[in-house]
Amino acid sequence: MSYPSAYQEAIESLNQEVSRAQPSDILQFCANFFAQRLEGERADLLAGPHSKPPAMSGSAFPGRFGANSNPFGDGEKLGSAGGISNVIEEEETDTVESPAAPNFSFGAGGSFSSPFSGDGAGQGPPSSFKPAADGFPDQYGMGRRTSVSAESLNPTASSNDNWSPPFHQKTLEQLTRLRKSISGNFLFNHLDDDQSSQILGALVEKPIPAKDIKVITQGDQGDFFYVVEKGTFDVYVNPAGEFQPGPNGLGTKVATIESGGSFGELALMYNAPRAATVMSAEASCLLWALDRITFRRILMDSTFQRRRLYESFLEEVPLLASLTKYERSKIADALETQKYPAGTTIIKEGDAGEAFYLLESGEAEAFKSGNPAAVYQYKKGGYFGELALLNDAPRAASVISKTEVKVATLGKDGFQRLLGPVESIMRRTKYETGVEDIDPLSTK
Ligand SMILES: Nc1ncnc2c1ncn2[C@@H]1O[C@@H]2COP(=O)(O)O[C@H]2[C@H]1O
Q1: 265 lines ligand 1 (CB under 6 A)
Q2: Looking at residue 57, what is its pLDDT?
Q3: Which residues contact 73 (CB under 8 A, 6 or more apart)?
Q4: Which band of pLDDT confidence, cut at 50, 70 and 90, is reported for residue 301?
Q5: How far does the centroid of ligand 1 lie from the alpha carbon of residue 264, in Å?
Q6: What is the pLDDT of residue 51?
Q7: Residues 79-111 pLDDT 10s
Q8: 145 labeled binding residue
Q9: This prediction's pTM
Q10: Where would I find the Cyclic nucleotide-binding domain in this sequence (predicted)?
């Protein structure tokens, strides 16, 4: 008997997924698998003519609450737009619309309807999900979907399939604002021109009119990555692994994200439940939302590689030991590696300071003019170049490579934004001879 090719393709995809995931509850797994494929196709149809149907959106892990159910128990709020449940504000009578829908708007009658159909997703986390002590889930990567869709077979842009990103028309004024918002974001640093214009086309503007709007709810499925154009957002982690109703349901505040920053990448990168709840900290905020598939196809590759590349090295840097794993990943996003042969002047005394350096391998030494002996020695995991940035002063010494070295550099902007929590540790560093003589560390 011959089967329709679409059916054969679907069954093959399911087989691959089952053999990789080895689920214990086969029926639930298959039900979720097909429900989510359907969901992806419908979402795409509703999103308009520019987008092509993804083979599958969402994660295939069986949710504690079953496919398409809301962990907060209000199954009736499930929306069809975006194929996912409404969100977020338990108290709100939300009208559900896909944030990707061109005609997205807030609800009638002046009451806010959450724009985030994607992030109120009904799929709860697997019951084994628990965040680590630092709020960063241990299981990241474990539930990683590796098959099924074109997206996940090859998450990077590839010429051998017919995927193209959604395109949302923008005014010149919107484009100018958008370009400015992403210009300082390290995740967008490594895009070529084509990728940049694809990302600019795919982002959708999302005004957040009020304070305390939950954009992301911990434990939910994630469908969008967000860039902050205006306003601030607070990040909360509940040690139970999900947002819970009640006065302490948010958990502890772990971070604040400001304009130019971004959030919501973890769930998309690792196919994991949302690791934190993210809420507007003031009224009149403005976000740009990027759909999961475009994020995975265009942005994820470099982000993922960069975080992996620096993960183990940054864990061994004593200066960064007090940071959470998440704070270290944000540093990894911003680092650039450079190699220098032995005898290279990496930093020149008296110059203006533009970057901070972590020594990835090799050895280097600091020298001060008039003194032929080295005043400081650097080994793997050491850092230099902080004084000029901390004090807005000229370089206090020259740093010269003693062997071939590999350094990870962090620009001034990243240094100021990401190393705030360890500033006091850097200020405590005692230079044995010379450097502190001309550097007014002690005056701070
Ligand atoms: N300490 C933190 N732990 C986890 N997530 C964080 C933290 N600080 C900020 N976030 C962001 O909060 C987001 C919640 O959704 P995601 O898990 O997709 O991605 C998460 C990160 O982008």
Answers
A1: yes
A2: 33
A3: none
A4: confident
A5: 6
A6: 41
A7: 222 222 233 332 222 322 322 233 323 222 222
A8: no
A9: 0.65
A10: 187-316, 319-428
Read off the pLDDT of residues 236-258 as tens digits, 9 standing for 90 and up: 999 999 999 988 999 999 999 99
Q: Is 116 in the pocket of ligand 1 (CB under 6 A)?
A: no
In contact, 423 and 390? CB cutoff 8 Å: yes
Task: Name which residue sits closest to atom 11 of ligand 1, judged by CA.
Answer: 263
For residue 346, the CA-to-ligand 1 centroid distance in Å is 35
417 is in an annotated binding site: no
Is there an atom of ligand 1 within 6 Å of 326 CB?
yes
- ipTM of this complex prediction, to 2 decimal places: 0.89
119 CB within 6 A, ligand 1: no
Can you tell me which residue has the tokens 């990789």? 20
Task: Read off the amino acid at residue 104.
Answer: F
Q: What is the DSSP letter of 50?
A: T
Give dist(CA 214, CA 263) in Å, integer.
13
- What's the CA gap between 133 and 314, in Å, rounded? 18
Query: In sequence order, what DSSP letters do the residues of 132-143 get, joined into one string?
Result: -TTSSBTTTTTT
Tell whether residue 265 is among the known ligand binding residues. Answer: yes
Question: Is 215 close to ligand 1, i.e. is its CB under 6 Å away?
Answer: no
Q: Scanning the structure block, which residue is given the tokens 């084509």?
A: 194
| CB atoms near residue 127 (< 10 Å) | 10
